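Notes from the 1:1 (GR / supervisor)

We went over the backlog. Supervisor wanted to see one worked example end to end before approving the batch request, so GR pasted a single chain during the call. The sequence is below; no edits were made to it. Supervisor asked that the structure be written out right there so they could see what the output format looks like.
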Amino acid sequence: MAIQGWNSSKSNLLILLWKLSGEARKIKRHCLLRNLTTHATIYHLWKQRNNVIHNLTSIPPAAVFRGTDREMKNTITSRKHKKHFSSLMALWLR
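Structure output shown during the call:
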């Protein structure tokens, strides 16, 4: 079962994760952002998978990315008082 537009969206996601991983070895904030992004992405992809299997409906790729973006913003905002999260929102929005 192919999801329309999914291959290009998946490629963009992989490029984003690859770019984050290049600098992540040097800077702890980048590593933290990469790990959070990976976690949120896997969660939303798994949610998409379960929706297709159990409800026989597909979530559009744009909605998956919107959900991942919203989860990242919520996670960073809720932990902004912690040392490594203080400047992470600016890095995420960049």
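Supervisor's comment: The chain has a mean pLDDT of 82.
Batch request approved.
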